[in-house]
Amino acid sequence: MRAQIVAARHRPSVHQEPNTANRALLWFVGVLIVVAAGSLAYRSSFGGVFLFDDVPHIVENPHIKHLTPIGTWLHTRRPTVNLSLALNYHFCKLRPWGYHLVNLIIHLLAGLTLFAVVRRTLLLGRFSDAEAGSATPLATAVALLWVVHPLQTQAVTYVVQRGESLMGLFYFLTLYCVIRGSPSADARSKRKLSTRTRLPAMWYALAVGCCALGMGSKAVMVTAPVVVLLYDVIFLSGRLSAALRRRWSLYVGLAATWSILWAVGIGGVFRTETAGQATVGFAVKTVTPWQYAMTQPGVILHYLRLTFWPVGLCLDSDWPAVPKASDALLPAAEILVLLGGTIWALRRKAWLGFLGAWFFVILAPTSSFIPIRDLAFEHRMYLPLAAVLALVVIGGHGLVLRLGKANPSPARWATRSCVAAVVLMAALLGTATARRNAIYHSREAMWRDVVRCAPHNARAHLGLGLVLDEQHRTAEALVQYQQAVQLRPRYAQARSNLGLVLGKLGRFQDAAEQLQTAVKLKPDLMKAYGNLADVYVKQRALKRAVAVFRQALKIKPTWAQGHVRLGVILAMQAKRAAAMAEFSEAIRIAPDTAEPHYCMGVALQQAGRAGEAIREFQVTLRIEPGHADARRRLDRLKDQSRRSSAP
Question: What pTM, to 2 d.p., does this model score?
């Protein structure tokens, strides 16, 4: 009998919203508000350009240029994301607005799923009748603020961070499917069970499928099975043993999706030695696990500050590691207090405990002791932000109810007060989001913004220098590259670009010194070899230029552009046979690239082999129809051929 009483205490009764005739209308209005507000806040995002990591992962990513074979995008760290990018490329090529449109759709779908999760959770019996009776308005408020919050812009407007928003969508969908499939929730509903709710296995299968797709989007999804289990214990089953007994097959399926992360190579984070420069895991050389763990309390508090005061957003903050443990004591103490409160609430099976767990567990993969080269990024708050906003909205509603007890209609008074506050906050946040999106319209504007908010960031100075260099503002680019080298003397890319600019300014000796240093710092930086060879060519030191390319091609024999550029220098030395051998090797390595075919055509033309040259120019134009030089040479050869064959 006592066991039955305890079980009944944890059994979640399902509340019904009042005015059931208006339930559908409330739901529709909530959905409309979230979609409209999100679309309005992000309409300025369509003018955004490709920035930062967008270039290697989208513009220069060969894995998204073809939908088939499947292996082109499947055998990557994030196959779900790469598939979405491949579809984007298939329909939009490299037009940024198409990528921004898909990102916005993903974000809005995630917001709507959050709305559904919060609404159903409020009806499960862990909240007061007033909160359950206002389930749809409260869920609308949470989703609305989450969708328009400017802290989300990095995960939505920065195209390559689609991995974060796509993972977030599948995270919410996984939890939603579990809620929908829970017989323990629906069995106590006053409504008659529908056909859908009689099929928990179907919903659980969908949950596992969504979890698998999330694992293919980003590694943070590793926490989803744990968070779902915590939700089950607090809101559905009441006990860990009951949750595992009732839904053991669900958790076996969710746990099985962890194998996807191992299959795509995430297990490498646990290795301390790996080829190349690791960006995540114990092979990261720039920060130790201890330094990373000491720094993260301050980072988490920074995230919370941006939640309540989203001023000073930065695409690349380059957060510095804490130099000594004493500097981390105060932030660590504050975080420990929050963690302690979360654990206390979890032991009492309180909804506050789940919100705290949602926040800390989802942040754990990026804010614990496993080093990541970038210690802080705003997009990591994409999912944790939902917990903070849910606490503000639901907790604020409850507080207003208590303050309005003296009012004859406290529920109505609280609702109106909360609606006014939410509308005001949404307007302010949405305006800030629209303004933030405008910065994504220009690479120069973005890098100037990063330099402003993180002047210590050498990578930001390099990015700004690249933009200025492309605009032929060489003197301004030189200043930015010098600043980057001063901040990070061992920054090979910055030294390579500095050498390139010095060469343009005619300071060949200084340029060669910077480029030689860059090659020593990073022997596999092919651009540095190319820039160094260019300096030698300008000095008419062709033998040195040839030696530089020979050295580079020993390190990377498959560098097609290196073979082409070496062939051009050999042709300048009148070594036509050796030059054509290099062009042939480049064609073998990259047959679908126009430049090797064009250079081979020129060499064949100079050798008097007009027929072969014509074929190479035709291939060049088939690959790159707008190649003006190839068209001009082909027309000239054809004209000469016609005149020579005329009687």
Answer: 0.89
